[in-house]
Specification:
The structure holds 2 protein chains of 2 kinds. Chain A is of the alpha/beta class. Chain A is built from 23 helices and 18 strands. The chains are: A alpha/beta, B alpha+beta. Chains A and B meet through helix 1 and helix 9 of A and helix 1 of B.
């Protein structure tokens, strides 16, 4: 440690002997960057609000960590939510939230940047702020670090808006650097006008959304009346940031190599960003448009460099639908050729259902270990798949699994959602029937009885900036009922039922996720109450308590005439001012509404990469276009 | 139809490595160390031999790893190589690739020895009556302690080969490697039963050697 006197390592170390997995807190990993504290003019603490095991592999955090440590005047360290055993000891011994590199108090930094992948991390934000000694409510802060939110969940930050100083929407690479520059210049000028002027500077040109600069007013029926800036010189709406050339940002180049075990142990390269398949439930696909591909050369350089810098033995070719890269065949051939005979394995997460993908999976598995096959039809019936615009036919699926079973696979996993708009019990029965057919073709082509099919069910949660943002979310009771229908249908299939393995989660965490996804600022006191009642790690089954959320909602929302159902199961109308209506993902609201109406009549829409522009509005708004590697080379 | 796994050739060379885990990395478990080592070997470009099978693993075997939270200057492993590399070069290249608190101290050609005892140094601080408690425990025929985490009783006395107060708050003990394995913190607990002033919490443990008798 560069300056142990300023850090809390001395106080922390004796506590580590008393907690589970202490190694997660020690830092000192290969590729961790520890700069001399005094050398930097701006210091940022970057946080993923979950354990080290979950947060460290986060791609966004890894990218920003490298980019923000490159300029000599800038320093970035990491911090994560500490597990409750250590949190209790830290409180008892007065040890504050620290960073993993220098073990300095988070409070000593200029900025605490938090990446929200999911709304279920909100209570962990409060836990960390409290351990750091930073007031929870933005209005109570004076000299403490700026608390800045980013990540997909921040496309509707309103439920946590009162806890945040600033929010950056979209791609963080350029925006985070620009934010740091503005903090630097403000500090260099002698911090004129205090925190308020710094926030004003960050708001200029739409760099960041400053929640405290906007007032929200409500109608008598509880709906939002208006969201307006409360001062001069602040934009009435704030848009997302979009990188235009991924090849110019080849990060992470040398990610931290964890010592503790983490959820992903691979070097990941984002082969493209954005997706235009148009799945109506998919927030990631809607908010990251347009498609921007990385070139083959850039990908190959990143893979070679990343493996050399980390010593990892698995490469993940990341994106929202990796097989859609316009040069995926060339890429797979090149990488397989390069790593043949080595112990390096390649994986392609998020593949769609078709035979081409299977060939690809076969090809990739040859250079290493063979992984499981997972396909995501998402909806059980053809009608429901048209509603969600997941253009996969039953024939496609059966043809693909036929090839899979012919190639030696013994089981496949199918992923579906439950609680989708227009869904009925019949759609659940259709899932069971589809799984039965999969088993049937598996037995036929393999000539064996021991083929299997795992059905994995996730509860659907309507998300902001998607075609389903107006939809009624299915209640926990409805979801649980539908799962029961599915279970019974599987059990009733005497020929195949035993070969079908059903996995599902209860509908209740989805209700809380839905509440927070489409919620507004009136939920901040609910989140605070849940946290004060002991709520942390809501994404972890052993910590999640629906009752805690239910009673906090009753206490905070009832006086306002609202309840959980108002936020979740209530269908919204076109005229309603949505809590995120002042935040732009670039999608034309009229286009989005039309897509919702199309969904209700099961009308499909094609992918604009090969079927022409659908006028979703993103490209003209940001002066961008689809960028395909095939066309560039 | 089903693919057969590729057969891997046996190692060309087997090295015996002694390494240290120190400072904050004493909190690493031996599985953590194994992950770190495999990646360091790859970064260092050392040709590892792999096992055969659908999921080939590097041919590395660990001997009596020290418990998580305890430091060591005497951890040992056997490493199979797919090509000839000078042992000293392996040590140097690994040390350049490993985190600072993991150090390779020794590398020789050879197979894994069957160590029978392990010597530990405990920093217990200045505790009046420590020497008497040590003599008392050595004179006893039996000493049973409780492992709360495992909800199990452990008889420690037969495993104690030697135990000595070195002054300066240091205590050295040599323990037989057997089954069930008696750990130095079990022995410290047995001492604390005779000497309530002995505070177990701040004791630091370092393995100094593993011995062949």
């Amino acid at each position: 440690m560069s300056d142990p006197a300023a850090g809390v390592w001395g106080e922390l170390e004796p506590l580590l002997a008393q907690v589970v997995r202490p190694v997660q807190y020690v830092g000192g990993e290969v590729n961790a960057v520890q700069k001399p504290w005094e050398s930097a003019r701006v210091r940022l603490a970057l946080m993923y609000p979950d354990t080290y095991a979950v947060g460290q592999p986060n791609q966004g955090l890894a990218i920003l960590y490298e980019i923000l440590n490159e300029p000599e005047w800038l320093l970035a360290e990491r911090t994560f939510t500490v597990w409750p055993d250590l949190a209790a000891l830290m409180r008892a011994h007065g040890v504050p939230q620290f960073t993993w590199e220098s073990h300095r108090p988070v409070r000593d930094f200029d900025v605490l940047g938090v990446s929200f992948g999911t709304e279920l991390g909100y209570t962990n934000l409060l836990e960390t702020l409290d351990l750091a000694g930073i007031p929870l409510w933005q209005r109570d802060r004076v000299g403490e670090p700026l608390v800045v939110g980013g990540g997909h969940a921040m496309f509707n930050p309103e439920p946590v808006a009162p806890f945040l100083d600033a929010v950056v929407l979209g791609d963080g690479e350029e925006a985070a650097l620009e934010l740091a520059r503005r903090v630097r210049d403000w500090k260099a000028a002698g911090s004129p006008g205090g925190r308020d002027e710094l926030l004003l500077r960050l708001s200029q040109g739409g760099l960041a959304y400053i929640p405290s600069f906007y007032d929200v007013s409500y109608r008598e029926d509880g709906q939002i009346a208006s969201i307006r800036p409360n001062r001069e010189g602040v934009p009435s709406s704030v848009g997302k940031h979009t990188l235009s050339d991924l090849d110019r940002w080849p990060y992470p180049k040398r990610p931290v190599v964890p010592i503790a075990e983490t959820v992903h142990e691979r070097y990941s390269v984002e082969i493209f960003r954005g997706c235009t398949r148009g799945c109506r439930f998919c927030q990631a696909g809607m908010i990251t448009r347009p498609v921007r591909e990385r070139s083959l050369v850039a990908i190959q350089q990143m893979v070679a460099g990343g493996l050399a810098a980390t010593g990892l033995d698995e490469v993940g070719l990341l994106s929202l639908s990796s097989a859609d890269h316009s040069q995926i065949r060339e890429l797979a051939t090149a990488l397989v050729g390069q790593y043949q005979g080595s112990q390096i394995s390649l994986s392609l997460p998020s593949t769609r259902v078709d035979a081409f993908n299977l060939t690809l999976a076969e090809q990739l598995s040859r250079s290493g270990r063979r992984t499981g096959l997972t396909f995501a039809p998402e909806g059980g019936s053809q009608r429901l798949r048209a509603v969600i615009n997941k253009m996969v036919t039953e024939d496609d699926l059966l043809r693909t699994v036929t090839t899979a079973f012919e190639s030696g696979w013994r089981s496949v996993k199918l992923y579906f959602m439950c609680g989708l708009p227009t869904e009925t019990d019949a759609d659940m029965v259709a899932i069971a029937e589809l799984a039965g057919k999969v088993i049937e073709v598996g037995r036929q082509v393999s000539g064996r009885r021991d083929v299997g099919c795992t059905i994995s069910i996730g509860g659907f949660v309507p998300k902001p900036h998607t075609s389903f943002q107006w939809a009624s979310q299915a209640s926990a009771e409805t979801v649980d009922h539908r799962l029961q229908v599915l279970k019974e249908a599987v059990m009733a299939d005497r020929r195949h039922g035993r070969a079908i393995n059903l996995r599902w989660a209860s509908g209740k965490p989805g209700v809380v996720e839905g509440l927070l996804s489409r919620g507004d600022r009136r939920l901040a006191p609910v989140i605070e109450r849940v946290w004060r009642g002991g709520g942390v790690f809501d994404g972890w089954r052993e910590h999640f308590s629906y009752e805690r959320w239910e009673s906090a909602c009753a206490a905070e929302l009832e006086p306002l005439g609202l309840d959980i159902g108002w936020y979740t199961t209530r269908e919204r109308q076109r005229e309603e001012v949505l809590p995120w209506s002042h935040l732009e993902a670039g999608l034309d609201p009229d286009w989005l509404w039309q897509d919702w109406q199309d969904a209700l009549v099961a009308a499909e829409v094609e992918d604009c990469r090969w079927a022409g522009c659908n006028d979703c509005g993103v490209c003209p708004l940001f002066g961008l276009d689809i960028q395909l590697a095939k066309e560039a080379s | 139809m089903r693919r057969q796994p590729e057969q891997q050739p046996p190692p060309v060379l087997r090295l015996l490595l002694r390494y240290a885990k120190r400072g904050r990395l004493r909190f690493a478990s031996h599985r953590d160390f194994a992950r770190v080592l495999e990646r360091a070997l790859r970064r260092a470009g050392i040709p590892m031999a792999y096992s055969s099978g659908f999921s080939p693993h590097p041919r590395i075997s660990y001997l009596n790893s020290a418990p998580t939270g305890m430091a060591s200057e005497a951890e040992w492993l056997e490493l199979g190589l797919a090509a000839e590399v000078a042992p000293d070069e392996v040590a140097d290249r690994l040390n350049a690739a490993l985190p600072e608190d993991f150090r390779v101290l020794e590398a020789v050609v050879g197979r894994r020895p069957e160590f029978t005892t392990s010597t530990w140094l405990l920093d217990v601080g200045q505790v009046p009556g420590l020497a008497d408690a040590v003599s008392e425990l050595l004179a006893a025929d039996s000493a049973v302690v409780r492992r709360e985490a495992k909800d199990r009783d452990v008889e420690v006395r037969p495993a104690i080969v030697k135990m000595e107060v070195l002054g300066d708050g240091k205590l050295e003990m040599t323990l037989r490697i057997g089954s069930p394995l008696v750990r130095p913190d079990d022995v410290a607990q047995a001492l604390a039963r005779r000497l309530p002033a002995l505070n177990l919490q701040p004791i630091s443990y370092t393995r100094v050697s593993q011995n062949l008798d």
